[in-house]
Amino acid sequence: MKCLVTGGNVKVLGKAVHSLSRIGDELYLEPLEDGLSLRTVNSSRSAYACFLFAPLFFQQYQATTSGQEALRCKILMKSFLAVFRSLATVEKTVEKCCISLNGRSSRLVVQLHCKYGVRKTHNLSFQDCESLQAVFDPALCPHVLRAPARVLGEAVLPFPPALAEVTLGIGCGRRVILRSYQEEEADSTVKAMVTEMSIGEEDFQQLQAQEGVAITFCLKEFRGLLSFAESANLSLSVHFDAPGRPAIFAVKDSLLDGHFVLATLSESDLHSPAMCSPELHRLAPPLQAHSTPHLDDFASDDIDSYMIAMETTADSEGSRAVPSIPLSPGLRPPCSPGPFSEDHEAEPSTEPGTPPPKKFRSLFFGSILAPVHSPPGPSPVLAEDSEGEG
Amino acid sequence: MPLLTPQTQEDGDYSLVASLDNVRHLSTILKAIHFRDHATCFATKNGIKVTVENAKCVQANAFIQAGIFQEFIVQEESVTFRINLTILLDCLSIFGSSPMPGTLTALRMCYQGYGYPLMLFLEEGGVVTVCKINTQEPEETLDFDFCSTNVINKIILQSEGLREAFSELDMTSEVLQITMSPNKPYFRLSTFGNAGSSHLDYPKDSDLMESFQCNQTQVNRYKISLLKPSTKALVLSCKVSIRTDNRGFLSLQYMIRNEDGQICFVEYYCCPDEEVSESES
């Protein structure tokens, strides 16, 4: 196998490797007739990612050396990542990147031709391996969201870096909601903050899901693909099914496509009113319609989240993603329109009554929340065993 | 005497007096050799040389010539003392290591002689800090006997070209192998780590190459852990001269330009790890 990447595509390749490195410790590299495939799976096999770079992505692409069988190889992610460690440097200095797989020397050779005639050669040791292929089909997922990566990227920006999982769902008024996921734990003092972003339907290129559906998945891997898609200025589509079924995140353009398949939590706290599940929808008028009668109560109860709500608001200035921490009346940032904004009329006003703020609050923090049902389905097998049939 | 310090002694009582209106000119250079706690200082009328050594295999010298100082007086032929470099650097940056633009920390440094502490008077915005750092018995430093007449190969590179290479060195490799040759690959840095080997080649006609004087192919290996600290000097420098002598000893000389455009030098010597036969290269 031999391929040559030039110009800005070197950085695209590097960026893809960076996002794959968020998932697995090993990189499966497979030259196919329809392009070079880079794949990885995490150690618990709950996340799988693959990129396929079409032959046209390369200046020169040769999947097989004449007379030789195509090689597949598995290398340490760390060592391949080291080649592209600093993307800024790659962008600044690397002019050409030549990757060749030589069966005889058992080395994957990555050669970077840099500015000033400097040439870096990495001879990476590899292992032969079977093909790594997850079984998934986006077409089978009933729900699809598609938006420019930038929109989703800005929406996940306010989440704390240490946050493990995030819940994505469709809220009231077909707004797409991203919320930090809290594990139910007794001492929730540390985690006594929920961050939620809601994005209007108009920011999506496709939104095929009804209100109330939601999934919870790992944020780290999602961020990995997002940062790739953002740098390549691509749209990201999310295909998902019921909680517990894998979700498929995909990017595509004419020269490459990428798929991340992530496990989702089978239990989901989306029955909470925040996501506007139907029964609570009846009880509580939608978010925007809330007046702020209990502002003092709430703000004094939880000044920290109030502060954060304001920060989030400031941070996402210029972003089209609307920070929607003000899930409950009291958390409404002061800069938002007055209590009776024009949204009010648009909301279903037939539903009477506002829930008592205390109840709302406890729901918000999940303390009286129990998952209504958690289907104990079989854990999804995302990737076939690499020891399986070739 | 710009500083408001009680002067009970005349300058004549000190064997070393040095004043500097911007302490960063000194602290920056010292940071470039700060890979061990202790340093030996030699002062002569030409300036101060500060030496740090490790494992009897590597030696770093920082030269701060007298011209860098506004006042520089050495009473004796030479003044030598050993000092804790970490503490000295902490004291020199006592007003902060990255001062606000427009403010300078001035330094007056006095040493009375053997057995006395090194006195530092630091002044910024009218505030004076006095530091006394105990000095220690000077230890004999290594003599690498690196003589320019024995130099076989010499390359001068713009530091920019080496910076990334050194910061990204594969530290799972035990050695850094340096190949210098009048023929291809001219100048090559190689590592042999867990993941495989890496080679970095610089053509002799590269724009990064200021000077290329290689007479004979030499392949030498140096402990990567010993050379890695020189990255500190490399990032500060604008040019680096790489020389090897007939024994394979390596000399790295870094030219460092300070904020006022004055030039100082930091030098690293390192002895080779082992003999490498020609066939192995």
From TrEMBL, chain A:
Q: What is the lineage of its organism?
A: Eukaryota, Metazoa, Chordata, Craniata, Vertebrata
Keyword annotations of the record: DNA damage, Exonuclease, Hydrolase, Nuclease, Nucleus, Phosphoprotein
Q: Which reaction does it catalyse?
A: Exonucleolytic cleavage in the 3'- to 5'-direction to yield nucleoside 5'-phosphates
Database matches in PANTHER family: CELL CYCLE CHECKPOINT CONTROL PROTEIN RAD9A (PTHR15237:SF1), DNA REPAIR PROTEIN RAD9 (PTHR15237)
Asked if Nuclease is a keyword of the record, the answer is yes
The protein's location, in the record's own words, is: Nucleus
Region feature (Disordered): 314-390
Keyword Nucleotide-binding in the entry? The reply is no
Listed name of the protein: Cell cycle checkpoint control protein
Which GO molecular-function terms appear in the entry?
A: double-stranded DNA 3'-5' DNA exonuclease activity; histone deacetylase binding; protein kinase binding; SH3 domain binding
Protein purpose: Component of the 9-1-1 cell-cycle checkpoint response complex that plays a major role in DNA repair. The 9-1-1 complex is recruited to DNA lesion upon damage by the RAD17-replication factor C (RFC) clamp loader complex. Acts then as a sliding clamp platform on DNA for several proteins involved in long-patch base excision repair (LP-BER).
Residues spanning the signal sequence: none
A Pfam family (short name) is Rad9
* GO annotation terms (biological process): cellular response to ionizing radiation; DNA repair; DNA replication checkpoint signaling; intrinsic apoptotic signaling pathway in response to DNA damage; mitotic intra-S DNA damage checkpoint signaling; positive regulation of intrinsic apoptotic signaling pathway in response to DNA damage
Cellular compartments per GO CC? checkpoint clamp complex; cytoplasm; nucleoplasm
Q: So what family is this one in?
A: Belongs to the rad9 family.
TrEMBL record, chain B:
* One GO-annotated biological process of the protein: cellular response to ionizing radiation
- Described purpose of this protein according to its UniProt entry: Component of the 9-1-1 cell-cycle checkpoint response complex that plays a major role in DNA repair. The 9-1-1 complex is recruited to DNA lesion upon damage by the RAD17-replication factor C (RFC) clamp loader complex. Acts then as a sliding clamp platform on DNA for several proteins involved in long-patch base excision repair (LP-BER).
Describe the family membership recorded for this protein in Swiss-Prot or TrEMBL: Belongs to the rad1 family.
* Keywords, sorted A to Z: DNA damage, DNA repair, Nucleus
* Residues annotated as transmembrane: none
Tell me which domain of life the UniProt entry assigns to the organism this sequence originates from.
Answer: Eukaryota
Query: What does the subunit comment say?
Result: Component of the toroidal 9-1-1 (RAD9-RAD1-HUS1) complex, composed of RAD9A, RAD1 and HUS1. The 9-1-1 complex associates with LIG1, POLB, FEN1, RAD17, HDAC1, RPA1 and RPA2. The 9-1-1 complex associates with the RAD17-RFC complex. RAD1 interacts with POLB, FEN1, HUS1, HUS1B, RAD9A and RAD9B. Interacts with DNAJC7. Interacts with RHNO1; interaction is direct.
- For this entry, the protein name equals Cell cycle checkpoint protein RAD1
InterPro entries in the record: Cell_cycle_checkpoint_Rad1, DNA_clamp_sf, Rad1_Rec1_Rad17
| Location of the protein in the cell | Nucleus
Q: Which GO terms describe its cellular component?
A: checkpoint clamp complex; nucleoplasm
Known Pfam families for this protein? Rad1
